From TrEMBL:
It comes from Nonomuraea rosea. The chain crosses the membrane at residues 48-67, 113-132, 144-164, 176-197, 209-234, 255-280, 337-358, 379-397, 417-435. Residues 519-560 are annotated as: Disordered. Its EC number is 7.1.1.8. This is Cytochrome bc1 complex cytochrome b subunit. Residues 15-241 form the Cytochrome b/b6 N-terminal region profile domain. It catalyses: a quinol + 2 Fe(III)-[cytochrome c](out) = a quinone + 2 Fe(II)-[cytochrome c](out) + 2 H(+)(out). Keywords: Membrane, Transmembrane, Transmembrane helix. PROSITE patterns: CYTB_NTER. The keyword Transmembrane helix applies. InterPro entries: Cyt_b/b6_N, Cytb/b6-like_sf, Di-haem_cyt_TM. SUPFAM superfamilies: Transmembrane di-heme cytochromes. Residues 524-560 have a biased composition (Basic and acidic residues).
């Protein structure tokens, strides 16, 4: 059996021999084509973003053949009759030409827009999967930071692309961008003049955004995605806890042919979904909005979903400002713009980037982790993540406070006041509810381990009582549950002389000790009813009693 597993398929052996005879690369090709990848549906979430990015590059290249990044004014003379003779920028006119006069142009333009939305959404969901399972821990902290940078750049890429058609809707967003930029202390005017080439709206913003959108930001994205993939490949993929899975192996199927076939089919499926959306669901009908003029703004203007939380922050922020030296002439800090522009993004992105290091500081956990956690098994981390999602969600929802007010017949002021309260109350409630849910799910797992699962068989006891017979859970389900480890925590107990451990002294040390005690430890122990527990010591270093024997750390040695 082992000979069959180790035998190199002919499809790999032939190209490997060809390359080895000419480049000496046979060993590299054989090793990497037989690399083992774990099999779990959640690992495919990041691939949605990757395939969407590929579609973005292809459709964007198509659009560059006809798009004219110029703000020079012309009279429209295209095939869309309602706008004939209207003065507009060449950028808007070329966008209309792509939509109405280029064969397949509208389909490709809508595919590009839908792929952009799916790209950002895929990255967000992938980041949540990594966060909730703890896949950012050592040795993957650098890859996590690269992911946070990718998400930040994706937002900037979306903003620059959204503004290019120069229609009335994108112009409203551009006006907000200018207001945010110019409000920044010291550097605001310089940034604004650099982007717009003078007083707003200037004549250069479209051409400069175009260069950022098709050249600079995509180049950085491509480099970071490549680095992200290479690091993932070198460090090997994380895997869910289960039968035979340890930190020393990878249980799954080889890259070729299993994973390659699955990835190819999944890419085609992603392409089919984006093509279907572009065909049957209209998005961004710029011809209905008309060309942008700084004096006009359309009612009900909404940005794409990924910018909704910044829009919501602007809408619910009170009109605060600081006049330096008591006079507006000496300088004004418009907090009503600066805080919404910088604080929500700063909290979310900075929090994401620092979290692996803050968690390690709190728990003192310096081990490598290749088997991830189930979210329920680290209740504080999961609760923090749900609080951040709720914070984002409230801001995102309030980005449409005018639509909410109009459709639900609620006063706009009351909608705004409610948002100001919810932005503080809702994340706290989300934390408490999520924490209790995680403990409840842990108790459910403990009950399954201790008493088994319902069999559907009703048994009558000698004294007349009817009970349902419970049977032990399946081996793979039990192994999945027993993959639980106590959350590590620092040694915080004082010695016999009453002296705290080194590093736990002083105000910061005492705070760290309290945080570690609250964050770490075992909340709900697993117990099978016979005193065996789950095979882990309090420090979390024990090995799972159902783990397979390690094969020397080679991630190609175990197939399933």
């Amino acid at each position: 059996m082992s000979d069959e597993l180790n035998k190199v398929p002919k499809a790999i052996a032939g190209p490997s021999t060809f390359l080895d005879d000419r480049l000496g690369g046979a060993n590299f090709l054989k090793r990497n084509l037989r690399k083992i990848f774990p099999d779990h549906w959640s690992f495919l979430l990041g691939e949605i973003a990757l395939y969407s990015f590929i579609i973005l590059l292809l459709t964007g290249t198509f659009l560059t053949f006809w798009f004219k990044p110029s703000m020079g004014e012309i009279a429209y003379d295209g095939s869309y009759a309602p706008l004939k003779g209207v003065m507009m920028s060449e950028a808007y006119a070329s966008s209309l030409e792509i939509s109405f006069d280029v064969r397949g142009g509208l389909l490709i333009r809508q595919m590009h827009h839908w792929a952009a939305l799916l790209f950002v959404a895929g990255m967000m969901v992938h980041a949540l999967r990594v966060f909730f399972t703890g896949a950012y821990r050592k040795p993957r902290e650098l890859n996590w930071i690269i992911g946070v940078l990718l998400l930040t750049l994706a937002l900037a890429e979306g903003l620059t692309g959204y503004s290019l058609p120069d229609d009335l809707l994108s112009g409203a967003g551009l006006r907000i961008t200018e207001g945010v930029a110019i409000s920044l202390p010291l550097v605001g005017t310089y940034i604004t003049f650099f982007l717009f080439g003078g007083e707003y709206p200037g004549e250069d913003v479209i051409s400069r955004f175009y260069a950022l959108h098709i050249l600079l930001i995509p180049g950085i994205l491509l480099a970071l995605i490549s680095a992200h993939m290479v690091l993932m490949w070198v460090q090997k993929h994380t895997q869910m806890p289960g039968k035979g899975r340890t930190n020393q192996n990878v249980v799954g199927a080889p890259f070729y042919p299993a994973f390659m076939a699955k990835a190819g089919a999944y890419m085609l499926f992603t392409l089919a979904v984006i093509s279907g959306l572009a065909t049957f669901s209209q998005i961004n009908p710029i011809w209905l909005f008309g060309p942008y003029t700084p004096a006009d703004v359309s009612a009900g203007s909404q940005p794409d979903f990924y910018m909704g939380f910044l829009e919501g922050a602007l809408r619910i922020m009170p009109p605060w400002e600081i006049n330096l030296f008591g006079t507006a002439h000496a300088g004004t800090l418009p907090l009503s713009v600066i805080i919404p522009a910088l604080v929500p993004m700063g909290i979310i992105m900075t929090g994401l980037a620092l979290y692996p290091f803050l968690e390690r500081w709190v728990t003192g956990d310096h081990r490598e982790h290749h088997v991830v956690d189930r979210p329920r098994n680290n209740p504080h981390r999961t609760s923090i993540g749900m609080s951040a999602i709720t914070f984002y969600g409230v801001l995102w929802l309030l980005g449409a406070n005018d639509e909410i007010s109009a459709n639900f017949h609620i006063g706009l002021n009351w909608t705004t006041y409610g948002g100001r309260v919810l932005i503080f109350v809702a994340p706290a409630l989300a934390y408490l509810i999520t924490y209790r849910m995680c403990l409840g799910l842990q108790r459910s797992d403990a009950a399954v381990i201790s008493h088994g699962v319902e069999s559907g068989v009703i048994k009558r006891l000698p004294h007349g009582e009817f009970i349902e017979v419970h049977t032990p859970p399946a081996d793979d389900i039990e192994a999945h549950m027993r993959g639980k480890e106590p959350v590590p925590m620092l040694p915080v107990e004082e010695d016999t002389a009453g002296i705290p451990p080194k590093g736990m002294r002083g105000p910061l040390g005492k705070l760290r000790a309290r945080m570690s005690k609250a964050y770490g430890g075992e909340k709900i122990p697993l117990d099978d009813g016979h005193g065996h527990g789950h095979g882990h010591g309090e420090d979390g270093h024990g090995e799972d009693e159902h783990a397979a024997i390690s094969s020397g750390g080679d991630d190609r040695s175990l197939t399933h």
